[in-house]
Write a structure and sequence with these properties.
This protein is an alpha+beta fold. It contains 5 helices and 14 strands.
Length: 208
């Protein structure tokens, strides 16, 4: 949310309404969501929205099914309250990735990198207009946490390579939902977009 407020909103005029997990759970009428134009489902600072109740997941599914776009970040909405063996993403039906290893609950990797590179899979995609020619490299070391997923009913728009000492890791970074059978456009971030806010800005502009 702070990324939206401090890095995106000053360049892209948008109104932001934040609903915490407890507030989502209190909403019983799905019509409540009709006043919003886009869903950004993120884990929040304490990660509490990794798990959402079944009714909230149904409401969010209906929101996107109505044609509204969505951004999903990390493990947000991936679990169902009180149901250890059920995938929240399967219940939502619009998240364009699946956990690696056919797991119900995805693993995350938190790495201190010495170099991080992101590679455009489709340089002509509107969200990648800042990539010249085809990649973005962070040479200043730092931490990155990302979710271990594979595209499912989606296509990778951006991949990344993480160098940590003598080890190298590759992963999808941003996945877009494909097909026309389900509602609005959906983009999924395996990492938190605060790492590079222009990407989030471009995604919002693309989805609007």
């Amino acid at each position: 949310i702070s990324t939206l407020e401090t890095q995106v909103r000053n360049e892209l005029p948008i109104n932001i309404y934040t609903l915490k997990k407890s507030e989502l759970a209190a909403i019983k009428d799905p019509a409540y969501y009709s006043k919003y134009n886009m869903l950004i489902l993120t884990e929040g600072g304490d990660g509490d929205t990794k798990t959402l109740d079944s009714l909230t997941l149904d409401h969010l599914k209906s929101f996107v099914a109505s044609g509204k776009p969505a951004i999903v970040i990390g493990l947000a909405g991936s679990q169902v309250t009180g149901s250890v063996g059920e995938s929240g993403w399967s219940k939502l039906g619009f998240v364009p990735v699946a956990c690696q290893g056919l797991k119900i609950l995805c693993d995350e990797t938190d790495i201190y990198y010495t170099q991080l590179s992101m590679y455009a899979k489709d340089i002509n995609h509107p969200i990648l207009k800042d990539f010249t020619p085809t990649q973005l490299t962070f040479t200043t070391s730092g931490d990155i946490k990302y979710t271990l997923v594979n595209p499912e009913n989606g296509v990778s728009i951006l991949d990344m390579q993480v160098e940590a000492g003598l080890s190298n890791y590759t992963s999808v970074a941003i996945v877009e939902k494909t097909g026309t059978g389900f509602g609005g456009k959906v983009m999924y971030f395996t990492f938190h977009p605060s790492l590079y806010p222009p990407l989030l800005k471009n995604v919002i502009k693309y989805l609007r």
